[in-house]
Amino acid sequence: MSVRVRALGAADAQPYWDVRYATLSSDPFAFGTTAERFAALPLEQVAQRVTPSDTRVSFGAFLSGPDGQEALVGILTLVRLDSPGFAHRADVLGVAVLREARGQGAGDALMRAALDHARSWEGLTSLHLAVTDTQAAARRLYERHGFQVWGTQPDAIRRAGQVLQEHFMWRPL
User: Fold this and answer.
1) Domain holding 108: CATH number?
2) Which class for 7: exposed (0-12), middle (13-18), buried (19 or more C-beta within 10 A)?
3) Which residue among 28, 109, 116, 160 has its CA within the 20 to 30 Å range from the CA of 76?
4) What is the pLDDT of residues 21-78, one digit of tens each?
5) Is 156 inside a domain boundary?
6) Where do transmembrane segments lie in this chain (predicted)?
7) Closest listed residue to residue 134, CA positions, set 104, 94, 162, 92
8) What is the pTM of this model?
9) How far apart are CA 7 and CA 22, in angstroms?
């Protein structure tokens, strides 16, 4: 199987919704939002979110099966901050790969696409993200791509009786 990454658009809203909902459901401690909250969003709002703009782009990782059919298996959103004092930075958000597609390079391909795109934004000097302490594999992925922890927030997220820490990471471009 080969991985192909491309920027998503409004026409990808339903597959994006499917992947986001599935990953929020299977990994509830990985994200700040819940599957239930996401499920309440109208598809039109999801389409707006995945439509690229000057400061936002969502990428999708597609795996080709033996039959040649491609399926969306991973997502990542890159958002450049537009306030003058923060325009030098962008946030990596909502990184998710379907459980059954993990270990096949989708996460690495998404991160490479985000880094390449970030370098195309003039004046951008750093990328930032957050990862919960339950997501060791995601943290290793980010570290492989040059991110490093700069701080940890204790008691960051509480869900289902569990208290999670969030590690804040950054990397220069």
Assistant:
1) 3.40.630.30
2) middle
3) 160
4) 999 999 998 998 999 999 999 999 999 999 999 999 999 999 987 788 899 999 999 9
5) no
6) none
7) 162
8) 0.95
9) 20
